[in-house]
Amino acid sequence: MTSFYDFLDHYYLWIKAFHLIAVIAWMAGLFYLPRLFVYHVETSIRETRETFVVMEARLYKIIMQPAMHLTLTLGILLAMVPGTWSSPWLHAKLAAVFLLVLFHFFLNTCRKELAEGRCRFTGKFFRIINEIPTLLLIIIVIFAIVKPF
């Protein structure tokens, strides 16, 4: 009978590959959704706003949510490699991932407000926060690849 660690060792590269694919899909959504919000809040055409509501919901529910869950699940599997949990770089990376998850859920709150026609933010606000996932991605990649600690 093989152990969980034998399984993890045997499929490590496959898990890592699918983790990276999920990260790319999730990040694409995190980059694109705030941009849709900019266009959504800056249009005065009702039909266009309704189109944005559909686009935003599909992006969030069909792409971003599954990609985030897959990213986190596969990331946890990768972190189960013996010795990884005790690495300081992983703790720093996980802190940045946690902020990315919070940002993800914040975007969902904004999406719901926009769908209900009661958004409190401007296009300028969404343009600014559109940079947050980029900054967090840079931090996460540096910790994952360089492992500075």
Chain oligomer state: single chain
Give the end-to-end Cα distance, rounded to a whole number of Å. Answer: 37 Å
Computed Rg: 18 Å
| Strand-pairing-aware structural class | mainly alpha
As a percent range, the share of helical residues equals over 70%
Overall, the morphology is elongated
- Fraction of residues in β-strands: under 5%
What's the SSE pattern? Answer: HHHHH
- Contiguous runs where pLDDT drops below 50 for at least 5 residues: none
Number of helices: 5
Count of spatially separate domains: 1
Mean pLDDT over the residues: 95
Could you describe the largest sheet, including whether it forms a barrel?
A: none
Task: Please report the total strand number as a whole number.
Answer: 0
Structure description:
The chain contains five helices and no strands. The chain is mainly alpha-helical and 149 residues long. The chain has one domain (4-145). Helix 1 runs parallel beside helix 3, helix 2 runs antiparallel to helix 3 and helix 3 runs antiparallel to helix 5. The chain is elongated and about 60 Å long. 20% of the residues are buried.
What labels describe this entry?
single chain, 149 residues, mainly alpha
